[in-house]
């Protein structure tokens, strides 16, 4: 058994780091070193067990007498399930190692320096401001990196996050107050996200952030004996003292400056550089093309860039499938793409959840359109029966003090239509601001005459076939709404025990989460025998009709055929024996109330028990004896409990974990009630839908959702489609009364007395035929209820195309290509569309379903207007103040108690491009996203803030193909462009949106702007015009292809830039959104040789930049000497030396002859295993100080190499460690040994300089 020795101190962050790594090892595939999970010991190891002085904690003993490993870095790496890895293989492992090293060498010293004085563990004479400044400098790279990343390496926590989070535990607990955390917002967001992971919480518990007030058991200044400091620590402190001296000298020099009044203050210049919000002010009539003849603003402005383009696109008809062809029926060899929008509820406005859906759909639509396919993205809006009625009812009551019943049905419906006309356009306005390329001429509303006719037709057909039928069953009932509601409108609130909840209509809170036990007396018992039962809803005992026990329960065998007496009605309740009873729960006896519980209802059906409803639609008690008659249900709860106590039948009450069903519209407690309703038989339709997925006719992506699909289809129940509302499609069914004595009067549940029809006249004819009488003897009363909103939504893919009538659109665009939506409505909408489509049209409504993740708020809740946690996409695009968000809350229908919880955050301007980019970039992560896009797109460097248009592009584009005069860097950027095109098309085809955005982001920012444009500057300023012209053509190709790649995600900014580029041909399309999308066949410039050469150049550049940063050489261009191991590498390094000089801001870049020594006084870095970089430092740095740094670096490298050798030498290593990890360890050891050799050489070099 391995043993992990850790410190018991709650702030011992190295030990916490090891414990959390062990937790991840337990949750994953076991520790990365391949052994069993270690036992944790909260003390140092006994000296008798260690063959050396006791190691520092944490320490890991790998079995009795086995290998010892100590130190947080090494122990955590061994315990972590994937070692240094994580997603991404060896490349990710390198990134993890870099951040782990940064945490160990930079974060921990800075964090301790800032935190320990606050804890009284260092002398108060130390300068706390200097310590905080050092901490700030250490946090800066983290803050910048985390602007665009959720975690440090990959999409889940890795060893990098573990090392950095534990390093920062002390500052977040004791130093960083709320104002400081606002400054480091990205770091704080990442820190909180990590510590809330289950593995972190299991070790750390709830991490309480520093509030600004400190209660210390030890006052600052009271010294605590510290262990002797190592040489490395002393050198680090000497470096800190040197920085402090420089800081003090700077402060002193500032104090010696003349008073501010004697010269012009500098802040004036800063003001001039901030032009404010730049807008497009040129007079452009709506629908006319934007004037791009002038120069672009100096700074990027979404308001300027996004102005005028959308009306022009719409006016030109670019979004219509008919554009560029005679008709939609014209054959198109490129194919057809059709997708309908998931119709948003017409309840005021969209939120970021809708924005995510539309961002993905618009990107896909634009990609298919640019590929030349006949493309239709059909817009629409859902009437949202319950949600809309609730909103309008609240509005009426708030403004006029009227209920809908006081107003009357027809007048109320006019109010709803009026409200819809006011609010419906806002949704479409939001979609246009997002750039959604919908065909607005085909926009539909589910209450439009065309769609209403389809709803009526579907109901009548299904009713005539017996698929729709009338039945009295238990339904989810909202007493506040006085309506049945669907499962998706029921929230499950989990309680751990006794809880008081607010219920609409009750002044006092109602108790839930308790189990009440009471006794039923056995009828005819001489010994006063009783049966004790328990319930969480004591008021329902007034509707009990039996007591049930298990057939094999020996305690009740003697009661077969016996009954108990109801204490309030004196009725005899039989004791029934049923397998559903759990003998181990409670007393093993349960009360049976068929009319108010689904399980009890099924028991009642099996035993022929009467179902007695004891509640009306408003929740008042009926069919019960006084004094309970007429009481509201939860007042009856208290009355029944008191009466049982009075009669001596109360036996106890205890806490009981339970789930309370709540209506998500009214927040009322949902009651199961027996009501006659209309139902859809789903069995056969569900089998057909399931079989379609099994055969592969319908693809559901990601494929993990297919299991959910089959589980739902296999266990489906009939669908209740009745809703007791006024707003919606009134059910086209009529109750029949026959004026003929020969025909007995009917009752509601009897389906024979119900008839459906497309009109009342048709229904009367059908009823007369059914009963064999003349039509004049038939009286009809149409059902007052409306259909479930999901019924009309289930018809949406074909009703919007004109079904049941034949039309060109229906022939061309049905079945559709794709259905894209959130995974939360896979059953409620997607499954019903598939079932109804197959049943009514004989075809699947679409061939593929892509399901994205859900946007959630900081509390992990879905965005919902009823919670007040929605963010309007327009507020992200234009920006909104904190007060503006609060005003929206106050003007909403939100309950006042929820307003304060919803008051969070301020949203800066980002434009639609940044909004769409951030949404789509995380669309396929498969996890709920808690970060709104505005928090990921605030950096000017954070693409897509602005696409650069480098100067020097004054050229006439002539050819997209290479001309033979391309330089190495020209060939390289074309090769990288080819890869970006390949990855983009491949990602779109696989719905891998993060892969597409990552490929394009990397090309634009890291390859085109960071490398190619920088390398181009000396070329464009040079004398060789042939090479310069070739570079211009290459740059034009990159911009042209790159903008086309980016257009589906960022249509506005790419259109703005595209319109300012010259055209290669006069026949070029008028807009980028209809320009062909780049395909691999067009861009086939892959050049492995050029990529290998430029990779060496970039490796050298990174090494030079690292050395410049290490030695603070920011204002000079030091000479650089490259030491290579072979002639081929030397030739390659010589070929790229000019690029290194431009990219690294170096002076002379020279390649040393094989075996030749580097000049005296150079710093050394490893660019690759074949090339070392020597940066001339003679006269620029202090050799003694650099020698200390190198010696520390040598010690760390030696320890790392020793750990790797010991790890690989373990007997179980070859069999238990995966081969890819073994290979990574081998490469890592080779790199470490090579680095160690170079460090040794550098140490010898600096020793000569002393």
TrEMBL record:
Residues 89-224 form the GST C-terminal domain. Residues 218-296, 923-957 are annotated as: Disordered. CDD domains: Anticodon_Ia_Val, GST_C_ValRS_N, ValRS_core. Its EC number is 6.1.1.9. Gene3D superfamilies: 1.20.1050.10, HUPs, Isoleucyl-tRNA Synthetase, Domain 1, Valyl-tRNA synthetase, C-terminal domain, Valyl/Leucyl/Isoleucyl-tRNA synthetase, editing domain. Residues 234-248 have a biased composition (Basic and acidic residues). The keyword Nucleotide-binding applies. InterPro entries: aa-tRNA-synth_I_CS (IPR001412), aa-tRNA-synth_Ia (IPR002300), Anticodon_Ia_Val (IPR033705), Glutathione-S-Trfase_C-like (IPR010987), Glutathione-S-Trfase_C_sf (IPR036282), GST_C (IPR004046), M/V/L/I-tRNA-synth_anticd-bd (IPR013155), Rossmann-like_a/b/a_fold (IPR014729). Residues 1187-1249 form a coiled coil. The keyword Repeat does not apply. Keywords: Aminoacyl-tRNA synthetase, ATP-binding, Coiled coil, Ligase, Nucleotide-binding, Protein biosynthesis. It comes from the Eukaryota. Belongs to the class-I aminoacyl-tRNA synthetase family. This is Valine--tRNA ligase. The gene is VARS1.
């Amino acid at each position: 058994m391995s043993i992990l020795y850790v410190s018991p101190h709650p702030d011992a962050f190295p030990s916490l780091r090891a414990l959390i790594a062990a937790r991840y090892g337990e949750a994953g595939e076991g520790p990365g070193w391949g052994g069993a999970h270690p036992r944790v010991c909260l003390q140092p190891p006994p000296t008798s067990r260690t063959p050396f002085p006791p190691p520092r904690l944490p320490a890991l003993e790998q079995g009795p007498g086995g290998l010892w490993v100590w130190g947080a870095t090494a122990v955590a790496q061994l315990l972590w399930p994937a070692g240094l890895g994580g997603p991404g293989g060896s490349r990710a492992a390198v990134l993890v190692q870099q951040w782990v090293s940064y945490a160990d060498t930079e974060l921990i010293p800075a964090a301790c320096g800032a935190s320990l004085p606050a804890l009284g563990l260092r002398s108060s004479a130390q300068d706390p401001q200097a310590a905080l400044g050092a901490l700030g400098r250490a946090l800066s790279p983290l803050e910048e990196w985390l602007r665009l990343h959720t975690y440090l390496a990959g999409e889940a926590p890795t060893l990098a996050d573990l090392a950095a989070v534990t390093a920062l535990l002390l500052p977040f607990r004791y130093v960083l107050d709320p104002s400081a955390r606002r400054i480091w917002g990205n770091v704080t967001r990442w820190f909180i996200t990590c510590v809330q992971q289950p593995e972190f919480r299991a070790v750390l518990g709830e991490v309480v952030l520093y509030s600004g007030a400190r209660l210390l058991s030890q006052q600052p200044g009271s010294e605590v004996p510290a262990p002797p400091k190592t040489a490395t620590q002393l050198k680090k402190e000497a470096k800190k003292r040197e920085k402090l001296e420089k800081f003090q000298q700077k402060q002193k020099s500032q104090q010696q400056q003349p008073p501010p009044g004697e010269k012009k203050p500098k802040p004036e210049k800063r003001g001039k550089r901030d032009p404010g919000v730049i807008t497009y002010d040129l007079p452009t009539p709506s629908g006319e093309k934007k004037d791009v003849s002038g120069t672009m603003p100096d700074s990027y402005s979404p308001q300027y860039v996004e102005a005028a383009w959308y009306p022009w696109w719409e006016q030109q008809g670019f979004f219509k499938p008919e554009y560029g062809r005679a008709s939609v029926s014209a054959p198109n060899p490129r194919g057809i793409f059709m997708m309908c929008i998931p119709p948003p509820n017409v309840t005021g406005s969209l939120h970021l959840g809708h924005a995510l859906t539309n961002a993905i759909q618009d990107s896909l639509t634009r990609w298919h359109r640019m590929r030349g396919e006949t493309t239709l993205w059909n817009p629409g809006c859902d009437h949202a029966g319950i949600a809309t009625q609730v909103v309008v009812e609240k509005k009426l009551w708030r403004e006029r003090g009227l209920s809908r019943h006081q107003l009357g049905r027809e007048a109320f419906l006019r109010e709803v239509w009026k409200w819809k006309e006011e609010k419906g356009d806002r949704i479409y306005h939001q979609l246009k601001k997002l750039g959604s390329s919908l065909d607005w001429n085909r926009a539909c509303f589910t209450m439009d005459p065309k769609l209403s006719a389809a709803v009526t037709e579907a109901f009548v057909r299904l009713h005539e076939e017996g698929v729709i039928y009338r039945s009295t069953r238990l339904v989810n009932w909202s007493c506040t709404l006085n309506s049945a509601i669907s499962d998706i409108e029921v929230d499950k609130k989990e309680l751990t025990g006794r809880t008081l909840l607010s219920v609409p209509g009750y002044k006092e809170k109602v108790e839930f989460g308790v189990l009440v036990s009471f006794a039923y007396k056995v009828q005819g018992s001489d010994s006063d025998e009783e049966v004790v039962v328990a319930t969480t809803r004591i008021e329902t005992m007034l509707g009990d009709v039996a007591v049930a026990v298990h057939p094999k329960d020996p305690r009740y065998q003697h009661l077969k055929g016996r009954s108990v007496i109801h204490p309030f009605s004196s009725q005899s309740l039989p004791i029934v024996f049923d397998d559903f009873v759990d003998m181990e729960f409670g007393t093993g006896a349960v009360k049976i109330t068929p009319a108010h519980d689904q399980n009890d209802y099924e028991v009642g059906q099996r035993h022929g028990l009467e179902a007695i409803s004891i509640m009306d639609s408003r929740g008042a008690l009926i069919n019960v004896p006084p004094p309970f008659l007429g009481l509201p249900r939860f007042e009856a709860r208290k009355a029944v409990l008191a009466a049982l106590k009075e009669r001596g039948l109360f036996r106890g009450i205890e806490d009981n974990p339970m789930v309370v069903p709540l209506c998500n519209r009214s927040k009322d407690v949902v009651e199961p009630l027996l009501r006659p309703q209309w139902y859809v038989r789903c069995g056969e339709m569900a089998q057909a839908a399931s079989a379609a997925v099994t055969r592969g006719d319908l693809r559901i992506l990601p494929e993990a959702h297919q299991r959910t699909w089959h589980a739902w289809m296999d266990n489906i129940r009939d669908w209740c489609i009745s809703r007791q509302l006024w707003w919606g499609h009134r059910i086209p069914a009529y109750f029949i009364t026959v004026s003929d004595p020969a025909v007995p009067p009917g009752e509601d549940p009897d389906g024979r007395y119900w008839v459906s029809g497309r009109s009342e006249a048709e229904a009367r004819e059908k009823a007369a035929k059914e009963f064999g009488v003349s039509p004049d003897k038939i009286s009809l009363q149409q059902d007052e209820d409306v259909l479930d909103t999901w019924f009309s939504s289930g018809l949406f893919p074909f009703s919007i195309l004109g079904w049941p009538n034949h039309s060109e659109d229906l022939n061309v665009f049905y079945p559709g290509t794709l259905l894209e939506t959130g995974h939360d409505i896979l059953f409620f909408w997607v499954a019903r569309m598939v079932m109804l489509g197959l049943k009514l049209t004989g075809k699947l409504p679409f061939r593929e379903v892509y399901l994205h993740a859900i946007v959630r708020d900081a509390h992990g809740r879905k965005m919902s207007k009823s919670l007040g946690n929605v963010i309007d996409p327009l507020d992200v695009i234009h920006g909104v103040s904190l007060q503006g968000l609060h005003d929206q809350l106050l003007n909403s229908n939100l309950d006042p108690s929820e307003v304060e919880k919803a008051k969070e955050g301020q949203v800066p301007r980002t434009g639609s491009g940044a909004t769409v980019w951030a949404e789509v970039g995380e669309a396929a992560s498969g996890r709920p996203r808690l970060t709104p896009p505005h928090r990921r797109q605030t950096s000017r460097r954070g693409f897509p803030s602005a696409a650069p248009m480098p100067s020097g592009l004054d050229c006439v584009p002539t050819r997209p193909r290479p001309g033979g005069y391309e330089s190495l860097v020209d060939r390289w950027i074309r090769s990288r462009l080819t890869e970006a095109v390949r990855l983009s098309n491949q990602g779109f085809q696989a719905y891998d949106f993060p892969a597409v955005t990552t490929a394009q982001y990397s090309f634009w920012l890291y390859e085109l702007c960071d490398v190619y444009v920088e390398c181009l500057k000396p070329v464009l300023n040079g004398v060789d015009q042939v090479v310069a012209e070739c570079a211009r053509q290459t740059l034009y190709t990159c911009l042209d292809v790159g903008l086309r790649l980016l257009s589906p995600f960022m249509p506005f900014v790419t259109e703005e830039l595209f319109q300012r580029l010259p055209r290669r041909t006069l026949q070029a399309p008028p807009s980028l959104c209809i320009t062909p999308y780049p395909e691999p066949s067009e861009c086939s410039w892959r050049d492995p040789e050029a990529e290998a050469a430029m990779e060496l150049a970039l490796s050298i550049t990174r090494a030079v930049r690292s050395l410049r940063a290490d030695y603070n050489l920011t204002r000079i261009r030091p000479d650089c000497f490259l030491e290579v191991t072979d002639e081929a590498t030397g030739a390659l390094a010589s070929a790229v030396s000019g690029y290194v000089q431009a990219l690294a801001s170096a002076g002379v870049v020279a390649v040393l002859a094989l075996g030749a020594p580097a000049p005296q006084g150079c710093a050394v870095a490893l660019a690759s295993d074949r090339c070392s970089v020597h940066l001339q430092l003679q006269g620029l740095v202090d050799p003694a100080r650099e020698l200390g740094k190198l010696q520390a670096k040598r010690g760390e490298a030696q320890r790392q190499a020793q750990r790797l050798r010991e790890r690989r030498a373990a007997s179980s290593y070859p069999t238990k460690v995966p081969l890819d990890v073994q290979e990574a360890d081998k490469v890592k050891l080779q790199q470490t040994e090579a680095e160690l050799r170079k460090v040794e050489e550098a140490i010898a070099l600096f020793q000569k300089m002393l």
